[in-house]
Request: fold
Amino acid sequence: MKFVSTRGQAPILGFDDVVLTGLASDGGLYVPESLPTISEGTLRQWQSLHYDELAIEVMWPFVEGSLTRETFEVMVKDAYSSFRHPAIAPLKQISPDTWLLELFHGPTLAFKDFALQLLGRLLDHFLEERGERGIVMGATSGDTGSAAIEGSRHSDHLDLVILHPYQRISEVQRRQMTTVLSDNVHNIALKGNFDDCQAIVKASFLDQTFVSPNRLLAVNSINLARIMAQTVYYIYSGLRLGALDRQIAYSVPSANFGDVFGGYIAKQMGFPIAHFTIATNANDALVRGLRGDLSRKSLEKTLSPSMDIVVSSNFERLLFDLHGRDGNKLSQVMNEFQSGAVKLEDPIIAKAKTLFSAHAVDDERTCETIARIYRDTGELIDPHTATGVDALQVTPNETIKVVLATAHPSKFAEAVEKAGFDEVPLPADMTDLFLREERYTIVENDLNDVQAFVRSVMR
Ligand SMILES: *Cc1c(COP(=O)(O)O)cnc(C)c1O
Reply:
């Protein structure tokens, strides 16, 4: 498969180069040049596959040409072997027509593990093959960082520098990153918010001379491999719920639009998904985006911190398709957005609305939803998942509904306690998390300070 940039000016790349490149040189994001269509017959055959077997089938067209089939099979099986549930992505029914897709059984208790367990192995493999070293530089609103660290802590070919917003992530989230004392793991607590972290990472990728001759590697969802891995669980869950024979809608707690874009790719490959509901917290950039209003509001700190963002970077990938895959046109739109607000044209919005709806959920409603679902079903859900459940009110009625349960409730104690519950215990293998030694560096919200830190730790 070949990959093109959403802004039309960067070179067309193969999978290995896309994985190693992250952000395209023209400032755009890489997307598949074209996608294979999976036939209904093939999908029916896939209904009996285990998660890892299905993952190999779904992702193979993306990686073919960059890896041997055997290498890829070993990598995928290995990536999902650390999950705590044998189904990897189990479904749990919470009403006659609604299921939770539990994506939190990986090592760091959030859906990010699905992509980052694999991405860490891919990066390591491609670097080794080329005899190169790399520096993973990533911004995290809490969950990406720990998942990236878990996915790459044993790599000999890369160092990780992960920026999280100082005092704006949960203690479990922080400790999952800062208690990994591997030599190649470095945590920055940035005196700013998540978007400041993301802005510094983006600026660093656009001019990488400060780490030369090493290269920077992206683990944020600008990395196409993340999206690819997230496509799998839509198909996995959809097949189990009979998507070939009835209408299925997904409700996705969303921030950077990466998770839901994985579902969109599944749909583009011919997997029948009737509708996507985008759930946000008070940081409702995607709700406004779907109304055609691309603008920045100031950031609000909420009880669902992994969704606390101002600019939703992957929305650009959808906008590329909505603009007829015209990179020049999209470049203009994104340049305009860089300097202010943009109003999208009506036909573009109309097209988006045929497949997507969006709903913002405030903290009060989030807590009410956690309490209500517990009362009705005995399931304790995390605050991100709760936004997805509440957003079902804008999902078409006649569908089977799947809410992506993106994190385990023990990771977000504050919200769960506000909803009226005692603290939820961590899984057994993590009970000593609060006793482990931590290591991180507090850095000013300043590009030069961060880059100086990166240079000081790189090998
Ligand atoms: C990252 C994250 C999200 C948002 O996912 P996006 O891909 O950024 O839309 C939602 N919930 C949890 C728990 C997360 O970690």
